[in-house]
Amino acid sequence: MSTKPIDLPSDVGEHPPRWRDLFAAPHAAAVLVMASGVALYAMNLYFTAALMPSIAADLGGDRYYAWASTAYLIAAVVATMLIGRILAARGSRGSYLIAFLLFALGTAVSAASPVMEVFVAGRAVQGLGAGMLTGLGYATIRSVLPPSLWTRATGLVSAMFGVGTLVGPALGGVFAQLGAWRIALAAVVVVALALILASRRALPAATGEQGERTPLPLLSITALALTAALLSVSSTVTGIAAPVTALAALALLIAFFVIDARNPHGVLPRLAYRRGNPLAWVYLTVAALCAGVTAENFIPLFAQQLAGATPLVAGLVGAAMSLGWTLAQLVSVSAGPIAARWAVRIGPIVLFAGLAAYGLLQTASASGWQLLLGAVALLVSGAGVGMAFPHLSVAAMRSGGDSGEGAKAAAAVSTTQLIAFTLASALAGNLLAWGDGFALASARWLIFGIAAVTLVGIPAAAMALRRRP
């Protein structure tokens, strides 16, 4: 039984690695593919959200509007759980080729769809590729890069989530304004196909992940996929159906952990269920940080309703959290082992403080100064995520005693992210409804509610860092 605290990275040798080492031969091409894959996933999430009103207007089928996102998310959750097995069977190059091909195929189906039902089906296929891309972005680092570059590579890959959040809404908004959503999706297909060619050149055909194939944990996957579906549905129903659906989702989530813990070839690494091992606390800290990030999806709405901001200004305010995440992460990856431990411990506290400050600044008819101060508070909250996240990701990577468990532990970081996003988004929908149609009440319920959820990350980080005898 392991009783060690999480293994935070430390510099190797007398000359610690620099950023330029990451982008030097022979690593540059592989790093570009890994970072581009995650950026494509993150950008597409917000890019498509900006296009959805135009798509729904053209295709009809408004009742399937929410399922365009739900199908994508559920498929992505399932795909991230298969990363370790796909890597074992296909290696890094083959896995990326499959991921980009699925992403391109799904996007092409959506772009050519005559009705909303076909569009949703395309989004599900696209989600499979997208989930693989975000999982591979972490899991492949272990096999194609030396350990001395893991932290910087993880920071770069994670920063792509922030880049996607910044670029996606603006780019999608431009195409939506032009009424060219099919052209927008076709352009995404071209990018995915280009990255297929890059993957063939950049990644090795065989890697250290290759090994024995294991049975697929179908019961675990089914339980978690149904959990994601019910959580998404719970934010769209009303009356008694809402709490009943949420409770059913909670029961299925518990069932997932029970089933998975008993399966020697489960979705999550065995270490996550081993008493005394900190990996479970690492995942819980990641979940708390990601739950806080979901608040940014509603910031533009609050900026327009409460401060009368233009859509462009509101979008910039909404991007403040992702900007803070990205900037802090790029700085934090250079931290030594002691500073890294403090970053993990302080990160959830900073996130909570920033969200709470933003909530306190919300008033009816907010002034320009309040809007600016709110953006600063969101920047701070995002920095809390960015300072801790890369070290948590590397800690998960280093937790496995062999390459197979290490790859699974790394890929499970993405699974944890998606589960947290799903849960927090469902909760956000309910919190928003508790405002009973009043913008200020809805803003306060949502921001303070999400902030309260992030408090879980404070003791979780402390437990992950606790030194055991």
How is this structure best described in words?
The structure is a single chain. The protein is mainly alpha-helical and 469 residues long. The chain has a single domain (19-216, 265-465), classed as MFS general substrate transporter like domains (Growth Hormone, Chain: A), CATH 1.20.1250. The protein is built from 19 helices and no strands. The protein has helices at 19-22, 28-59, 65-80, 83-112, 116-139, 141-144, 150-178, 181-202, 218-234, 241-262, 279-293, 299-307, 311-318, 320-332, 337-361, 368-399, 403-433, 439-454, 457-465. The model is unreliable at 1-5, 9-14 and 208-212 (pLDDT under 50).
Looking at this protein, list some descriptive labels:
Growth Hormone, Chain: A, disordered N terminus, 76% helix, mainly alpha, 19 helices, 469 residues
Can you give me a brief rundown of this structure?
The chain is mainly α.
